[in-house]
Write a structure and sequence with these properties.
This protein is mainly beta. Helices cover 14% and strands 44% of the residues. The chain has a five-stranded antiparallel β-sheet, with no helix packed on it. Strands 22, 25, 26, 27 and 28 form a five-stranded antiparallel β-sheet that branches. The radius of gyration is 40 Å and the shape is elongated.
Length: 474
Amino acid sequence: MGIIKYDGNKIIPAPLVSFNRDFNQLGNGQVIGQTYTVTVNGTMIPYMGSPTSSGTFHTIAGYPPNEIIFSADRLQACLNKQKALLQLFNASGMGKKFEILNDDSATPVYFFPRNISVNIPEGQWHDDFQYTITMQVDNIYPSPDGVITDNIESASESWSIEPQDQIERVGRPFTYRVTHNISAKGKPVFVSGIVSEAWVEAKDWARARAGINYLMIGSGINNVSNMSGYNHTVSETIDVVDGGYTLGESWIFSSGNVLEDYNVNSIYSLDGITRVTVDGNIIGLELRDKQNITTSRWNNCSGYYNSIQNDILNRAQTYAGVTLNPIALTQNIGRNIGQGTLSYNYEYDTRPTNFISGALSETVNVTYGLKSRKFATIPVIGRAAGPVLQGLGTSEAQTKSLSVEFVLGPRFSGFNDEAIRSSFRFPIELISGLVNALDPYSAGAYSSFYDPPQETFDPFSGRGSYTINWTFEV
């Protein structure tokens, strides 16, 4: 059985290893370099091999004994083995010795990879899991024979990561503009004549390298490997005469699929009411799979707005430092479907919470008619000072009136008889508690009487009013 080692650590069961070698040539056919792509495909089993179920590698001769792993622990064993592989083939492990042997005493085929990527595809990860390790290698020892050419004379590839002024969201990191430029000068392919133009070879070489390379963009100071690339754009330049091709790509890198910023403004007035406005803008980001849109800007934008609507009041209260009525005074929403943007404006104030459940607005007024000294006016003929005022030793009865106006929003439910009757019914249950609490009898009056209350209600707007007048004795 073959043996595979990396940095002295055995990988058991031994995976399958494949090699691909590319040579770089000048226009005259001279070989100026070579690149091997080494692909390792293997399967890990939770109860056997190296690394073990705890994530340690076998480094001595022979093979480690099989382990007893209960069914309930197999998933964790697979996860431990995955973690061990990822740690072995991480960025700090590049350039170590990779060996392929028949047994522990054989002379190995070995190389020192300079680029490594590890892919663990989806699966249940219970009985086993597959993995693929891809490595870029300059030389393999001992050197194999044979020639496989890549029809590229020269090439260059660069990445640029630039922080943007616009933040992703409040409390979230800045976004980045990531650009990827690939240039190549190709060579024509001849089979009894030209079968492929030089620029086509350059195009194929460059396009094969298009897309996001997280190993590359995650290696710099501005590490964006934990973000995703959105709003992917591609530009191309073809030089048919010189056989050249240039491809440029650009992304916005963000940890989420929208950008948002908002302002919280407070206005303090002498009426004792504080008004707070929240103005925000949401920009949806587009995600593409090659040239196909997988999630649109508008879907991301609108979905995010739906998720934060209930948090806008909390933002206003948090940054204004006041407790606000949860029912907004105004709401203004602007939508640009094509651009995938949405703007919003909410206005709140510190008016007390409504008495009437579900009311959008309400006004409650109470008027008192207090005691007075009752008197008689007696005219006297010829008295220049006017009539004589005579106290009667009693007073007028005390009065109290309640006026309630409210807006519930449209309540009309249909045009059949039952719906009409239900819609136009005055919702007395919403204010009965308020009326009972303000009845003078509830406040200790000896007796209390009231005139017929006046009720009005418009179900189309949900606007209603209620008026009641009491006469009472204390």
